[in-house]
Design a protein that fits this description.
The structure is a homodimer. The first copy, chain A, has eight helices and twelve strands. Chain A is α/β, with parallel strands linked by helices. In chain A, the strands form four sheets. Chain A has a six-stranded mixed β-sheet with strand order 6-5-9-10-11-12. Chains A and B meet through helix 1, helix 3, strand 4, helix 6 and helix 7 of A and helix 1, helix 3, strand 4, helix 6 and helix 7 of B. Chains A, B: Keywords: DNA-binding, Transcription, Transcription regulation.
């Protein structure tokens, strides 16, 4: 390839780094791809790093040593986080959100990539220094959000099933009491899906009583692994004495059963 | 904000465009954020566009008119696509992939963001000119891939459930014969989850007999909507007379029941 200008190289470096968050890219890779000396690439990286930090679009970290290189850590400025959560509150306050049984319809939000990719960046920022091995979720509604958080942290996603599937080999199954239905439910996880002694964070759409988080804690014990945190999009703060400890939420929700009114606001983590 | 250099502006433009694929961003947004004239931003965009095309990292399209602006269309060069699919074939050929019942264990691949984000870009490239309204999938294993394809196309994801959930309001349910288990199964979709007269593409991990695709076709009819294509990561070409028409696969797989050998190769779409 012919020599590229600095303008061109910084575009390529930005594209490559931001699409593989938390994965170390060696300077050699850039050097070969862009046909430039490593010293030149280092100068390019300074430009990319400074601009991303100036606009609060995440950070570039340098990892030294033989396996060294640089990696991109997604993040957003606190103003953008608050703005995003306020927009989410507007969406949640729309008419028709309450479905029979006094549940809040979240499906359209949870399956909208433009919303969930941002929510994933914000949630991941609270867990980035915890050396997490896996993001876990229980099927189904939290999967896209859990996937985005795992992507931001550069780790794998583990999805716990409600029944065991013939395509996944041997599984471990536990019973737990669901906060939504109040019924005993099952959780299954394939033996192959997780290394033992792993640190996990549970990501979900909605937190009620924390029964699911408690179930996941129990299931992870069977894999000699540990639940070290929980992150949700919406927390129903009307339900007290939650069984989930150490959790992060973006939105706090309160439902007035008498007036049928739904109150939502960005959580204390955001403000 | 103080004036930024061109080096800085192209970094910001690349970051913003590539993280919201297929969404139109007005030049005004860049102009305000980067404190530069629209004519200057237009020159910046030429640089970003040329570099992305030169390195086959996707395209930038200009949309004219009042709601105009630019948008990023993710793509990969054919060499990178083939290289990715060959790596995937190596992964699929690893020992221990076959689980009891002669199923191929795909879970770790389907839940790995580094793999699935690239597979999503490749699959989306075959559907980009079809004006798709929704990407649909059936829970669970195909969800991350379907999500990535939806994100690349700038549209929403719709996840069909195997049972109906109390948190989703009224649902439509149909029965279909699963190719995996040979049993009659259910599919449910909330009435609120899709506008009528929509064009949909079904994304999944694995194609066997196409029974699920046929079920989705039937379910979509209940929403006055249409299945216009199917995309999977792996196609079991050993199973003939598939009920899925018009499908795209990245990998072709053949399982020799006598020798227990698994043969995999990039599909004809990739080569």
């Amino acid at each position: 390839m012919e020599k590229l200008s600095r303008n061109n190289r910084v575009v390529a470096i930005t594209k490559i780094l931001t699409e593989t968050p938390n994965k170390v890219v060696g300077l050699n890779k850039f050097s070969e791809l862009l046909n430039a000396a490593k010293s030149t690439i280092s100068e390019d990286i300074v430009i990319v790093r400074e601009l991303l930090e100036k606009l609060e679009m995440g950070r570039i970290e340098t990892i030294s040593g033989a396996a060294g290189g640089i990696k991109f850590i997604p993040d957003m400025g606190s103003e953008s986080k608050l703005e995003f959560c306020n927009e989410l509150c507007d969406l949640l306050s729309e008419e028709g959100r309450i479905v029979p049984g006094n549940f809040v319809y979240l499906t359209d939000i949870m399956y909208n990539p433009q919303i969930i990719s941002k929510a994933g960046v914000i949630l991941s920022s609270y867990f980035k220094n915890m050396n997490i091995d896996y993001i876990v979720t229980v099927e189904t509604k939290g999967i896209p959000l859990a996937y985005e958080v795992a992507k931001c942290l550069g780790i794998e996603l583990v999805i716990i099933r409600r029944d065991n599937k013939i395509t996944e080999g041997p599984t471990v199954t536990i019973n737990y009491v669901s906060g939504t239905s109040g019924r005993i439910q099952q959780m299954s996880l394939a033996k192959k899906s997780m290394k033992s002694s792993s640190k996990c964070v549970f990501i979900d759409d909605f937190l009620r009583g924390g029964g699911t988080a408690q179930g996941i804690k129990d299931l992870l014990k069977e894999f000699d692994s540990e639940l070290v945190g929980t992150g949700v999009l919406v927390d129903n703060i009307g339900i007290k004495n939650k069984r989930a400890s150490e959790y992060i939420t973006l939105i706090e929700l309160e439902f007035d059963e008498n007036t049928g009114e739904l109150k939502v606001r960005p959580s204390e983590f955001i403000k």
